[in-house]
Hints:
A hairpin with a 3-residue loop joins β1 (5-13) and β2 (17-22). The chain has a 5-stranded antiparallel β-sheet with strand order 3-2-1-4-5, covered by helices on one side. By secondary structure, the chain is an alpha+beta fold. 30% of the residues lie in helices and 39% in strands. It is elongated.
Amino acid sequence: MCIAWPMCLTEILPDKFAMADLDGVSRRISLRLLPDAKVGDYVLVHAGYAIEIVDPVKLAEQLKIFEELKNELADNGKQA
């Protein structure tokens, strides 16, 4: 299964790269597919590439789903 994570752009770097953050974890990602993305945008990141700018209306729902996944994984880890 492949998952694209919603990440916030924190810095635009040279050569169509950016730094993106999710839950305190920062990653260098490619903006080659989204050259108009800017700092503060949330983008879906898959395999190191920003593939879509997240609509602000949908963002809250996507972040809620992300939190639910984290909580479920944490709960399953406690049971192991």
